[in-house]
Write a structure and sequence with these properties.
Layout lengths: L17 H4 L5 H9 L5 E2 L12 H14 L1 H5 L8 H17 L11 E4 L1 H13 L5 E6 L3 H7 L5 E8 L2 E2 L1 H7 L6 E3 L13 H14 L3 E4 L15 H4 L4 E6 L11 E4 L5 H12 L4 H11 L3 H28 L8 H5 L3 E2 L7 E5 L6 H11 L1 E2 L1 E2 L12 E5 L5 H19 L2
Parallel strand pairs: 1-12, 3-4, 3-6, 6-7, 7-8
Antiparallel strand pairs: 2-9, 4-5, 8-9, 10-11, 11-14, 13-14
Helix pairs in contact: 3-12, 6-7, 6-11, 13-16, 15-16
Bound molecules: 4'-deoxy-4'-aminopyridoxal-5'-phosphate.
Cofactor: pyridoxal 5'-phosphate
Protein name: 2-aminoadipate aminotransferase
InterPro entries: Aminotransferase_I/II_large, Class-I_PLP-dep_aminotransf, PyrdxlP-dep_Trfase, PyrdxlP-dep_Trfase_major, PyrdxlP-dep_Trfase_small
């Protein structure tokens, strides 16, 4: 049945599909519009730092690709993706898993190059979700994934999560009949948290026991600051997981390239969905990325991104401690309710903070913008009841000096909101 039309469309020939009714403008994008006023220091965006884009390497790769095989680069191409790039992706995943102590024999035939990992989420939804299907997500989770799943009309169920990852006993109570659990083990968006080794091992075992497929989204995994994160969930049970990766955070999001690794049981259907969606991801961009990656470029380039982001995170931690007092090593609930609290992400782009009791992030935002700083309230990242006190702070795009000024402005805004 078609959805009813809004009254101003009554004489319009256009009848919207029910799924279109369920699509909403991203809450975050709406917030970002407000915060993009000139002069505002933004901790709100989710963009990688443009300082990290390897412009000269792309310039050289562009010329090389056109010189080597212009017809191949500019012609329609295979839906699976550019074979040398699929090979590189498989090799890198195998090497990283081995360094983390796991054998993961990634067959390049299981790698599908996607138009950003966002397309991976869309394909997963199309292939695995029927109207009314139960799907499980962390609490909070990546809003863009929920937006990709929603048009398929699922029943989205949140599983409790803490700073170690998914709560296994809550998962057990909710897993029956679920199509999958969508999970972000590394430097999660929005919290910056990383799932511990113990929790990964437990989740992997329980998911296998419950026959629950996992969708593992890992766009930030390479951006660790001190030590690499534990091995992916997919490396532990490749037949029970779909792994999503991205070139956006290690090279450039503008090329819109990512990849997925899927078990043989679902790969052909994901490929058919991909063919229907866009035939293939831009072949020219795929060749440029393969050209840039040749000779171990990422091994030299990614450490520079890590160093930059770590310095930025440290600046934010220092500024927060200066303005709000250091986070106590041990504190009771009353103490944590009385002050701003935050975590210390071990990688990625985001820090997660929580306002004192009685303050709501959504009310603080306009006051903060008046003071010259923006952030994203955390509540929209929850598929069910959001924690209204939470906020996401990105530390990668402002300079260190701006981070200090921005945190000072946040402190002023909080004082104003509290009426101090
Ligand atoms: N997953 C997560 C968790 C993300 O944060 C993002 C980007 N913000 C994506 C997927 C999509 O990234 P892309 O399509 O650029 O690969």
């Amino acid at each position: 049945m078609n959805a009813p039309l809004p009254p101003d469309c009554l004489n319009s020939p256009w009848q919207l599909a029910r799924r279109a009714e369920r699509m909403n403008p991203s809450v975050i994008r709406e917030i970002l519009k407000v915060t993009e006023r000139p002069g505002i220091i933004s901790f709100a965006g989710g963009l990688p730092s443009s300082k990290t884009f390897p412009v000269a390497e792309f310039e050289a790769a562009c010329a090389q690709v056109l010189k080597d095989d212009p017809a191949g680069a500019l012609q329609y191409a295979a839906s699976e993706g550019y074979a040398p790039l699929r090979q590189m992706v498989a090799e890198q995943l195998r090497t990283k898993a081995a360094a983390a102590g796991h054998t993961w024999e990634v067959d390049p035939a299981q790698v599908l190059i996607t138009t950003g990992s966002q397309q991976g989420l869309d394909l997963v939804a199309k292939v695995l979700v029927d109207a009314g299907s139960k799907i499980l997500v962390e609490s909070p989770t990546y809003l863009g994934a929920v937006s990709a799943f929603i048009p398929m009309e699922p029943d989205v169920v949140s599983v409790a999560s803490d700073d170690q990852g998914v709560d296994i006993s809550d998962l057990r109570t909710k897993a029956a009949g679920a199509r999958f659990l969508y999970v972000l083990p590394n430097f999660q968006n929005p919290t910056g948290n990383t799932m511990s080794e113990a929790r990964r091992a437990a989740l992997s075992t329980v998911a296998a026991e419950l026959n629950l497929p996992l969708i593992e989204d890992n766009p930030y995994g390479d951006l660790w600051f001190d030590t690499p994160p534990p091995a992916p969930l997919t490396a532990r049970n490749p037949d029970g997981c779909i792994y999503l990766g991205s070139f956006s955070k290690v090279l450039a999001p503008g090329l819109r390239l990512g990849f997925l690794v899927a078990p043989k049981a679902v790969y052909p259907k994901l490929l058919e969905a991909k063919q229907a969606a866009d035939l293939h991801s831009p072949g020219f961009n795929q060749r440029m990325i393969a050209q840039v990656m040749q000779g171990g470029f990422l091994d030299r380039h990614v450490p520079k991104i890590r160093a930059l982001y770590k310095a930025q995170r440290d600046a934010m931690l220092e500024a927060l401690a200066q303005h709000f007092g250091p986070m106590p090593a041990q504190a009771d609930a009353a103490m944590l309710d009385s002050r701003l609290t935050w975590n210390c992400p071990a990688g990625g782009m985001f820090l997660w903070a929580r306002l004192p009791q009685g303050q709501r992030a959504v009310d603080l935002l306009p006051i903060a913008v008046e003071q010259g700083v923006a952030f994203v309230p955390g509540a929209p990242f929850y598929a069910d009841h959001g924690d209204e006190r939470t906020l996401r702070l990105s530390f990668v795009t402002p300079s260190v000096e701006e981070i200090h000024r921005g945190v000072a402005a946040l402190a002023r805004a909080m004082q104003e909101q509290a009426g101090v």
